[in-house]
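Re: Re: ligand-bound prediction request (bumping)

Still looking for help on this. To restate: I need the protein modeled with adenosine-5'-triphosphate bound, output as structure tokens. Inputs repeated here so nobody has to scroll up.
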Amino acid sequence: MSATQYTTKHAVDELVDSYQRVPMLVIATHPDRSRIGERAALIDLHNEGNDYLSRVKPEFAKNGNAGRALLDEFISRSPIIFQSEPDGRIKLRAHSTKTTVTVVGRGVQDEYVLHERELDNGVVIGLNHRIVLLLKLLPLHDSAVDDNDVLFGISSDIRAIRQRVEQLASMSLPVMIRGAAGVGKQQAAYAIHQASERRDKPFISVNLAAIHDAVAEAELFGSERDGNRQLGYFEQANGGTIVLEDIEDASVNVHRLLHTVLQSGSVVPVGTEDTQPINCRIMLTSHKDPGDIEENSTLSMLIEKLSAYQLFIPPLTERREDIGLLFDYFVREQWQKLYGNRAYDAKISGELMSQLMTFHWPGNVRQLRNVARQVVIDSRDQEQLHLDPQLLSMLRPTSVNGHWEEETHVQRRPNSVSRNELLETLESCRFELQATGKKLGISRASVYQLIQRFEGVRTAQDLSEEEIKQSYEKNRSDTEKMMWDLQVSQIGLRRRLKSLGYDI
Ligand SMILES: Nc1ncnc2c1ncn2[C@@H]1O[C@H](COP(=O)(O)OP(=O)(O)OP(=O)(O)O)[C@@H](O)[C@H]1O
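Reply:
Sorry for the wait, this slipped through. Here it is.
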């Protein structure tokens, strides 16, 4: 092990619990693009001391690689000081450095005081309009997952999702993927498909809201008319994966049709009497909070049947550390599409990245990708990529409409909940997510997100069949005892037992 690795990871692990969140600097943009996403933990600051940021300090690292400092010749060797204040705030002191420092796009002359809440959301720090860093409280622990060329991101959330994608790929369980519009639900479904043995078979995504009732049966199940046979979506997905998008936006008729398919495990194309068994993996996406779905409706029954496993993808603003990497990827992708083989030579300026990091992004990753396309078009033949003033005025962080955290009982940032606090609250609420969310002052969706993030915290859907079997036998089918034994909610457990055919 090299000395640098020692400083950036292992020495740190001995000082703080690896699930603990510590102030972390993440590179959002750097003249050397390969450095985007590298992180450096400010452990002295965490331990109420001072930390320093300069050309030569601290060391940043990614994916367990050896660390290295920013090493940019335009950044001064004399440091910016991060000084912890007795009241939990952090003072950023730029007295002695020649580096031009901006915080959230505004110049800092001497000092700038950061509040704890700002650190929760992430504070955007610009250096000489060349390098942009995000200072944010992030967990030291990161699941060791390789970069993946389908689901980009360095946040703990995306890494945890990538780990689950790997696990899910070898199973054929239905998967429900939740999250707001544009967060990457379909992309996650595609990642599972690509990682599975079905990867060479079709991946069919169905926009259920666009299916008209009059033709729904034919579109879903296929049809035959005057000897002309049209395959339905389920048949088209034969051997592969079908993704039923935004299930709650489909009509009641479509819900009923899907329910019939699941009951029978087969489809009968319109105009025929042939029964065709369905042979594809089913995934669902939903942008609604589960609490908003009417109980005992066909939709809720459908979701229950198809939610053997759930993934939750958080909004982009809760994982701002992903923005730099995603934007860089989208810019290169768009460049290639628009200008073919012309070498990619435009630079992402510090100013542009600071702007991108502070927007609200109600349309999440899809919106970021659209902005990347427009930026590439608008910056053709320019040395640096820039935002057109008209686009800039549309992107200002004004509205937070549509944000998942807009529930009335939401009082705090989910990121401020530690693993221990989550475990204790889950236990005191009998592992009920809704009640846990209320007690913690966060949404149910955020509780789900945290469970996904912390290793060893689970829902009933995460239990293996073997574990359930053993606990069922040990506790003589008593679900109250099984709940304490397995540390998951009784309702979820009963659902799981029912779906596995246990007698309860
Ligand atoms: N982590 C990611 N890595 C790479 N590309 C991503 C990622 N997340 C999303 N994208 C891209 O962003 C766009 C939106 O993603 P996607 O369609 O999966 O979102 P969605 O949540 O299914 O949206 P909607 O709810 O509106 O259907 C797509 O172009 C997708 O390829």
